[in-house]
Design brief:
By secondary structure, the protein is α+β, with helices and mostly antiparallel strands. Helices cover 18% and strands 20% of the residues. The strands form 2 sheets. It has a 5-stranded antiparallel β-sheet, with no helix packed on it. Strands 4-6-7 form a 3-stranded antiparallel β-sheet. β6 and β7 (190-195) form a beta hairpin.
């Protein structure tokens, strides 16, 4: 009887994992669904960002890509949101675009492997599916800059915009100064990445109830959970 129960559990776990659509670097393309938002609601406009604070990420001189440039985010003069200045160039074939760029939750590890930056900055737990609706930026992932402000379609790519949902104030979920920027092909393959570093001003640390950073990627989470359940069943029945 125990063997039959174990086999039944195995079948159920296989079905659960089979229903999870494989992710391509954490993202699945698809139609925009207006109104989709995070489990914790819409992203809040950041206010009281410390004056004169700038974080910059400079892309590395890598042998694996010709993409170079930088992105810098400076506190808006009135403290509301962050003004980003973007200057990237050296993109490969247009057939790989349009190119995407996002703030990722973790910094680039010492070995330079961009996969170590994990998923997009997503303190409101929206997830990457469906894609961001740029007409409702408050419903998008905080770190999805290209989703909210436009993909990279030219080389060089230069743009400046006010991003209302990121922060230069350390200690809150929307803070990007200790994170990284990643550039992707249209199928989300990571091409290059760099860490943000403080280049001007003094950020303030605060205690806040703002949502904490969240890692997206449900397929991996489900697989690990299923493995843990399987190990427990095996230990009990065998």
């Amino acid at each position: 009887m125990y063997s039959q129960l174990l086999l039944s559990a195995l079948g159920g776990l296989a079905l659960v994992n089979a229903q999870v659509t494989p992710l391509i670097d954490g993202t699945i393309d698809g139609p925009v669904v207006p109104g989709t938002t995070g489990k914790l609601g819409n992203a809040a406009i950041t206010e009281s960002n410390p004056s004169g604070v700038t974080y910059q990420a400079i892309l590395p001189n890598s042998n694996t890509t010709t993409i170079r440039g930088y992105i810098a985010g400076t506190s808006n003069s009135n403290g509301t949101g962050v003004v980003f200045n973007v200057n990237f160039y050296g993109f490969p074939s247009e057939s790989l675009g349009p190119f995407l760029y996002h703030i990722h939750d973790q910094p680039v590890p010492a070995d330079g492997n961009c996969t170590g930056t994990l998923a997009h900055l997503d303190p409101y737990q929206r997830g990457e599916i469906p894609p961001c609706d740029s007409t409702q930026p408050e419903t998008c992932q905080v770190g999805d800059l290209s989703g909210k402000h436009g993909n990279i379609t030219t080389s060089p790519f230069q743009t400046t915009y006010l991003e209302l949902y990121t922060s230069t104030q350390a200690g809150i979920g929307s803070f990007f100064g200790n994170r990284s920027i990643n550039i992707h092909t249209s199928n989300t393959t990571r091409l290059t990445c760099a860490n943000f570093t403080l280049v001007a001003g003094t950020p303030s640390n605060v205690t806040t109830s703002s949502p904490s950073p969240h890692y997206t990627g449900a397929a991996t989470a489900n697989f690990v959970s299923a493995g843990a359940v399987l190990a427990g069943l095996a230990a009990f029945f065998l």
